[in-house]
Amino acid sequence: MTALARIRQRDWRSLTRQQLFWPLLILVALLLFNLPFTPNFFSVGVRNGHLYGSLVSILYFGTVPILVALGMTLVIATGGIDLSVGAVMAISGAIACRLISHAADQNSVSLVLEAMGLALLASLAAGLFNGLMVARAGVQPIVATLILMVAGRGIAQLITSGFILTELSKPYGVLGGYAATVPTGVFIVVGFVAVAAVLTRRTALGLLVESVGGNAEASRLAGVRAQRIKVMVYLFCALCAGVAGLWNSSSLGGADANNAGLWIELDAILAVVIGGTPLTGGRFSISGTVVGALILQTLKTTIFTIGIPAQANMVFEAVVVIIICLLQSTDFRRRVARLLRPGAARGRPVGPAGPAAPDQRPAQAAVSPESVEIPS
Amino acid sequence: MAEDFPVLRMTGISKQFPAVRALSGVDFRLYPGEVHALLGENGAGKSTLIKVLTGVYELDEGTVELDGAPVRITSPHHAQQLGISTVYQEVNLCPNLTVAENIFLGRERTSGPVVRWRRTRREAATLVAAFGLEIDVSAQLGSYPLAIQQLVAIVRAVDLNRADGAAGTKVLILDEPTSSLDQDEVEVLFGVIRRLKSAGVAVLFVSHFLDQIYRICDRMTVLRNGRMVGEHMVADLDRVGLVRLMLGRELQQLEELREHDRTATGETVLHAAGLGRRGSIAPFDLDISAGEVVGLAGLLGSGRTELARLVFGADQADSGELTVGGKPVSRRAGPQATISRGIAFCPENRRAEGLIPDLTVRENIILAMQAARGWARPIPRETADRLVARYIAALDIRPADPEATAGSLSGGNQQKVLLARWILTSPKLLVLDEPTRGIDVGAKAEIQKLVVSLAGDGVSVLYISAELDEVLRLSDSIGVLRDRTLVARLTNGPDLTADQIMQTIARGAQS
């Protein structure tokens, strides 16, 4: 093998080790996959005074999964999980729509702002409940948030009195519509992602979150206020879900307590995992989560545009998700690579066989004295 | 009884792990009808020997003979069939099932598919009574105290043999059975042990409570650093001799580091009065002045770690008062309060309680400082890089890469990362629990030097080590612990010898 080829191989390897490499590759592949089925998949036009096209629709409908997955990322990074995000979405949408639909003048901007503010306050209250249950009461996150996952939808139904509330407010419609030809959701998502990135990477919050998720007891003994950090991430997660709930109801022009945000917690968890944040907590990647959520949304759009029969939707999505998860697994990729190259299966070095083998042994020997432990 | 033929004879047992030679050429004999103590400090090889005997580990060299016939024990189940039963410190039973169900778990008394509950209960009651216990076998196991649960585990282990093999129990291994029992419970357990003994069972008793060993055991084998260093009748070896055997004395005296003239004259940094925690450490008084190194000596399980954890606030005390720098610390305050007063703590179990293995060396080093500042005031990246680089160089952390994953470092370097973490916070009192355990000799010496130089700068140190020489070399005064009580505070000086400390450990307070 030439020196050039060797350098290229090393570059390739360091590239594939980048956390974002595989998620991005999958996203691009998924987008390209659409081309044969929908030749104008990548074209973006203007219709009714706003941007129009498959890519735009991915971004448009990506608002909810990205927002929810963003909050979920931080919760998962602390070693927790939040199953109540869908219910919080329903509560938030229900409160806003009820306040707006019962008002005399639905188009009053101050009314809309007040409604949104109250809805987000309620979401934060839900997040506080989750956070206190997990951090203070020591309830397992999956159980603690299961309470609101079930009860929250009931609360949302109480707020809507069991009806599907519709509203016709123009200012409220902007939220789930378009601003300056671009989906408003894009601005919201960019804003939230930026705030989350700054909060976690410009302050010490990210370090403390990762430290709590990496080893909670060691963090406590290092003086990290683990409880406070946990409450904060549940608050943030609920706020994201609350905003997603507002966007959802604004986009639909009403609140449906039964179906708003249904199963979104599963999509969000999946997006986080695809983005490279382990469910065990510790290291997290916000950009990975965004890409993960975009992959899921692209998949849904793809299913729609290539015309998979409605009854096969779920199965098709599941199959693709399984493939994505397998592609993400280093172990699986290695096995596939071994199958594809029968020579490599027997462990034969790819480079010149002679010098390669003796090279490796001293390298290993050099490591071992470092790790020798002498029992006292 | 010692004249009998040994029921178990292990000869030249060696076991090598990737990094450590856990056992080298250990001989071990066990006679029927004796209670035999297996002794040694942490890392001496006790648990490895037991695991070889119970088939958990395969031995590298050596032979095992059972009743004179060589055997190869291949699995715990095989050991069980051969008549070797083990009861571990943590009871491996189901607390939600009844006593009778637990005893017969996996071999229920059935006719066809139907469990015959009445027969199960009757047989269980007979068994339990045979051990001299008065307990209701149809009550849930979890409703009984730990001692009874442990006894039920013994009943089950012994009966398991009688049912499976014709031979019955020949060897019963009790691995630290008394560590969570109170005095009365220990008596009940001892009653059962005596009963088994008179039935000819060889009992292997692992414990670090010397009093108990002298009361119940006939003979003992002492291990140190993977070697058998002595086999004695309990009556022939006094406690001082035993402690000396267990701790060992390094022949070459590392004398240079002793600096007793460095008398600490500073004000009191820490004052504990009657600080204690039930089941963990008896109330103790402790004063530490600025620049003083206080060593804690005592055997494993004597309460060294527990004392340190109370001082730091890692555990909540349930009695007494703690004053740091002249100000009282609430018992419920926790680590943040003590850290803000200038106490730092490197725990004994650094992987589980110290390090965040997934984070980088840099992040691990700045963690305590950052936590003290709060999340909203991040340490500027340049400052962090500069500080981290300085401590990586000062403590010679290898690899000298701040972005290396902390979990990938060797034990000694992990310890240095933790030390750097705390030194960064400029503590007034540094609590070090076994800072040199399991690390290589070079790093050990470096850490000891670091302690001396910190003390020279006026930092107080509470230094815990199982190695007496180390404690003796570094400390200005030495607290001696025994059976979870601080029994003495000895002033270090040219007159104080390891022998005196050993005697104090063995006999209790006398100074």
What percent strand of chain A? under 5%
The tally of helices of chain A reads 17
Low-confidence stretches of chain A: 344-376
Radius of gyration of chain A: 24 Å
DSSP summary, beta strand count of chain A: 6
Major sheet of chain B, described briefly?
6 strands, mixed
User: Which class best fits the helix and strand makeup of chain B?
Assistant: alpha/beta
| Strand arrangement across the biggest beta sheet of chain A | 1-2
The assigned structural class of chain A equals mainly alpha
- CATH architecture verdict of the largest domain in chain B: 3-Layer(aba) Sandwich
Spatial order of the strands forming the largest sheet of chain B:
6-9-10-3-11-12
Specify the helix fraction band of chain B: 25-40%
Give the terminus-to-terminus CA distance of chain A. Answer: 49 Å
Question: Can you put this structure into words, describing what you see?
Answer:
The complex is a heterodimer of chains A (376) and B (511). Chain A is mainly alpha-helical and 376 residues long. Chain A has a domain at 55-289. In chain A, 70% of the residues lie in helices and 4% in strands. Chain A contains 17 helices and 6 strands. Chain A has a two-stranded antiparallel ribbon with strand order 1-2. A two-stranded antiparallel ribbon of chain A has the order 3-6. A two-stranded antiparallel ribbon of chain A has the order 4-5. In chain A, strand 4 (178-179) and strand 5 form a beta hairpin. The termini of chain A are far apart. The relative contact order of chain A is 0.16. In chain B, strands 6-9-10-3-11-12 form a 6-stranded mixed sheet, with helices on both faces. A 6-stranded mixed sheet of chain B has the order 18-19-20-15-21-22, with helices on both faces. Mean pLDDT of chain B is 84; it is low at 250-261. In chain B, helix 5 packs parallel to helix 6 (183-198). Helix content of chain B is 35%, strand content 24%. Chain B folds into 3 domains: 8-247, 3-Layer(aba) Sandwich (Rossmann fold), CATH 3.40.50; 260-342 and 428-436 and 457-511, P-loop containing nucleotide triphosphate hydrolases (Rossmann fold), CATH 3.40.50; 349-426, no CATH class. Chain B starts with 7 loop residues before the first strand and ends with a helix. Chain B contains 17 helices and 22 strands. Chain B is an alpha/beta fold and 511 residues long. The chains are: A mainly alpha (376), B alpha/beta (511). The A-B interface holds A 202-205, 207-208, 210-211, 214-215, 217-225, 229, 282-283, 368-376 and B 19-20, 22, 41-44, 225-226, 312, 314, 334-336, 339-340, 345, 347, 352-359, 363, 366-368, 370-379, 398, 410-411, 413, 421, 434, 436-441, 465-467.
